């Protein structure tokens, strides 16, 4: 349990650092007006690659009614 909490905390902390660095690079290189496209790009990536983990998720357990009929 503690390992999972540590992994989630590490990913969150890394996201805070990397997100700030990415915003700084975008503003420094392309200007402040290009920063407004950043959420649109992230939303597009989420729309394209978001269904992949859902499709390859773990199978659900059998409903209780099917288990009872087998008895």
Can you walk through the features of this model?
With 71 residues, the protein is mainly alpha-helical. 75% of the residues lie in helices and 0% in strands. It contains four helices and no strands. It starts with a helix and ends with a helix. The model has no long low-confidence stretch (mean pLDDT 77).
Q: Provide the helix percentage.
A: over 70%
Q: Give me the Rg, rounded.
A: 21 Å
Helix/sheet category: mainly alpha
Poorly predicted segments:
none
What sort of overall outline do the alpha carbons produce when their principal axes are compared?
flat
Largest sheet: none
Question: Helical element count?
Answer: 4
Mean pLDDT: 77
Number of strand segments: 0
Q: What string, H for helix and E for strand, traces the elements in order?
A: HHHH
Strand content: under 5%
Distance between the ends? 35 Å
